[in-house]
Specification:
This protein has 320 residues and is an alpha+beta fold. It is 26% helix and 23% strand. Among the domains are: 169 residues, Ribonuclease H-like superfamily/Ribonuclease H (Nucleotidyltransferase, domain 5, 2-Layer Sandwich); 54 residues. It is built from eight helices and 15 strands. β2 and β3 form a beta hairpin. It is globular. The protein starts with 9 loop residues before the first helix and ends with a strand. This is Integrase catalytic domain-containing protein.
Length: 320
């Protein structure tokens, strides 16, 4: 007797009756770290079944209190930021999804909680598929960088942002455009390659010291206008808008980052240290968008090697 009889393409037919943001599939992957108390080990993924928009978050554990709170925050984020009404959540039968707190919350909001059968991964195929995609993305980004594995969560954020903003074959537009209902303009110069070596401004009043601190690019800071960088010398993560890639050049000549950061980048730039000594906790405060300085005539070459995301290496050159 066949245990799980799925009609081919039945889920896609079901989603055709849904609007973007109404139906979401959820799953958890982990542990991905070394299972240390202060290290994020679990990845919670929510994918919109219509637009394929991804919401990812990382956690030190997957107990029902932690995951339930994150799901509630995600639902509020979807409703407030994209003006969408969540109607159903497709989850497995883990206690993090079937606890009384989450059941009460979705019941009060009129959200249908759809549980999959035991050991039936196909019934939540979209979440399972994107968990596999994120695994490949994280592994590839970390393998091609000089970062410690404890920072894998930034690779997850970087990969999710790229997938949300780039056009998909199925929709012929980006997941962000489909979910928001707006034609989102992509600025390629806002994408920094994950793991690229860079220099950030040294926030010191001593003009005799080097103005550029060696750093490694992580991802866009979700809580500010800046970017997140890892400082190998201090093992900290900071959020800043005062940075320059290590391979930047002007008029064909490679530039001195210390000179550029001291003469071009404003001294009043707000650089936020967003982690503790072991670079594990984000606590960044939003910075001022008016502090952004555009370097005229600066030519920068950006090479992105995200093999699971792109079929070939994407090279972009732009002039600000």
């Amino acid at each position: 007797m066949k245990q799980h009889d799925h009609i081919k393409d039945s889920m896609n037919k079901h989603y055709e009756q849904m609007q973007p943001g109404q139906s979401w599939s959820l799953d958890i992957r982990g542990p991905l770290g070394k299972n240390l108390a202060k290290v994020d080990n679990y990845l919670l993924l929510m994918v919109d079944n219509v637009s394929r928009f991804l919401l990812v978050s990382t956690h030190t554990n997957k107990n029902k209190e932690t995951i339930s709170l994150q799901i509630k925050n995600n639902i509020q984020y979807i409703e407030k930021q994209y003006d969408r009404i969540v109607k159903e959540l497709i989850v497995d039968r883990g206690s993090e999804f079937t606890n009384d707190s989450l059941k009460t919350y979705v019941s009060e909001k009129g959200i249908k909680l759809m549980l999959t059968d035991t050991n039936d991964h196909a019934s939540n195929a979209r979440a399972e598929r994107f968990i596999g995609i994120m695994n490949n993305d994280i592994r590839t980004l970390m393998h091609n960088s000089d970062l410690p594995w404890a920072l894998w969560k930034y690779a997850a954020l970087a990969a999710a942002r790229i997938r949300n903003l780039f056009m998909t074959k199925k929709l012929n537009c980006s997941p962000m455009t489909t979910l928001s209902g707006k034609n989102e303009q992509i600025r390629f110069n806002s994408f920094l390659p994950f793991g690229a070596h860079a220099f950030v401004k040294n926030q010191t009043n001593n003009k005799l010291t080097n103005q550029g601190i060696p750093a490694i690019t992580l991802c866009k800071d979700p809580n500010s206008f800046g970017y997140l960088f890892y400082l190998p010398q201090t093992r900290k993560v900071i959020s800043t808008m005062s940075y320059i890639l290590a391979n930047s050049e002007v008029n064909g000549d490679f530039i001195d980052p210390n000179k550029v950061l001291s003469e071009i980048v404003p001294d009043n730039d707000d650089t936020n240290e967003v982690t503790s000594e072991d670079a594990l906790e984000i606590e960044a405060e939003p910075s001022n968008a008016d502090d952004i300085t555009i370097i005229k005539g600066l030519k920068m070459t950006l090479s992105i090697k995200f093999r699971p995301i792109f079929k070939k290496t994407l090279s972009m050159v732009w002039i600000l």
